[in-house]
Each structure stands twice: as structure tokens, then as C-alpha cells.
Amino acid sequence: MFINVFIAQVQLECAGLKQTLFVITGSCQGLEITLDVDSVPFGAVVQYSSSTRQFIMNNIGDIGAK
Fold first, then answer.
1. 52 contacts: CB under 8 Å, gap ≥ 6
2. Average pLDDT of the chain?
3. Which residue among 2, 9, 31, 33 is least enclosed by CB atoms within 10 Å?
4. Three-state secondary-structure class, residue 16
């Protein structure tokens, strides 16, 4: 049995430029993985500072995913 593999890039867009921040990979049958938001706003950016946001990844497919 073949299990579908998915790869999704999460990108940063700033001043018209896009850069990949990280890549999500996984596999499952009945694949339908979604994030709870389409964009993650971080507000003002200051050099050498950090900001953290959490998001939820949902499996709304027929079978569990890993």
C-alpha cells in the first residue's frame, strides 16, 4: 500500500520578499492537514529580538497522520 507524502513550506513575507522559514513534512492516508490560520502576524521587528506565535495543525482527513 502506498502512503501519500506531503511537503509544505512556511514562508515569511516582508517588504515584498518571501523567504522559507521551515518545511513541514509528513505522510498519511486520507490526507487533509490544515493550519488554523492563513498568516501569522508578528508586529514590529527589532534587530536581535525574538517573537513567538503558536498555531494549530489539524488533521481533518479520514485516517490519522504522523
1. none
2. 78
3. 2
4. coil
Measured in degrees and rounded to the nearest 5, phi and psi for residue 27 equal -155, 150
Total-model pTM: 0.43
Measured over the CA atoms of residue 16, residue 22, residue 27 and residue 29, the dihedral's sign is negative
Residue of 35, 30, 17 whose CA lies nearest to 64 = 30
Residue type, 6: F
DSSP string for 35-66: ES-S-----S--TT--------EEE-SSS-B-
Do the bridges between strand 57-59 and strand 33-35 make them parallel or antiparallel, or are there none, so unpaired? Answer: antiparallel
In the predicted model, is pLDDT for residue 13 greater than 70? yes
Place of cell 508578528: 42
Domain positions in the chain: 4-59
